Amino acid sequence: MKILLVEDDIPLAEALMARLSEADVLVEHAVNGADADFLVQTERYDAVVLDLGLPDGDGTRWLAQWREAGIEVPVLVLTARERWSDKAAGFSAGADDYVTKPFETAEVIFRLRALVRRSRGHAHPVLKLGDLACDTHGGTVSLAGRPVSLTAQETRLLMHLMHAVPGVVSRSELVEHVYDRDHEPDSNVIDVQISRLRRKLGAERIETLRGRGYRLRDPDAESGGADGAGAAGADGRDA
């Protein structure tokens, strides 16, 4: 999961980013609305955590502009304002959830994961595809009821593919959502990670579609039609 944190309180932002990173969440930070506006229009995020009291204008104004521009990224408002009128203004501007300060970081993480799941059409915290299950709260993966040991990057990559089922995820999208923007991976890192997941989950579970990207499939389900006809071999590297 990759999020944008819009918060001008630097100590608070640094503490929250540290906790989010410990939970395997990629975080980018903006200290004002203008920087956040540029980022949400040029980068892809799974969610935005937005403070309302920003130095260059109320957060609800920036949020309303994003919604008017058709930017539909889930937004969690994080603010010290507790009055119902402030909450109503946030929801009216297009907020998806609201947490007041002070807060428990674990609650913010749970709410963010719930927002991302629901934005992708998943209501339950455990994502399933056949006998493959991913617990988005605990960050654990099981196959046929048995736990699968994955690295943090492998888990993020698999979770992103699971959220996209039955869609196809491009290589560039995986790079953006699995790796920190300040630490761009080598060109073949995605291939290596996909190969490792195939070894741990089964080669037939991840399709490579030439020129398009990758897609998770349930190997026990009936074969999918023409869309899968262009899939490369299990270790195909031409997505």
UniProtKB/TrEMBL annotation:
Residues 2-116 form the Response regulatory domain. Transmembrane segments: none annotated. Residues 216-239 are annotated as: Disordered. CDD domains: trans_reg_C. PROSITE patterns: OMPR_PHOB, RESPONSE_REGULATORY. Keywords: DNA-binding, Phosphoprotein. It comes from the Bacteria. The modification 4-aspartylphosphate is found at residue 51. Coiled coil: none annotated. This is Response regulator transcription factor.
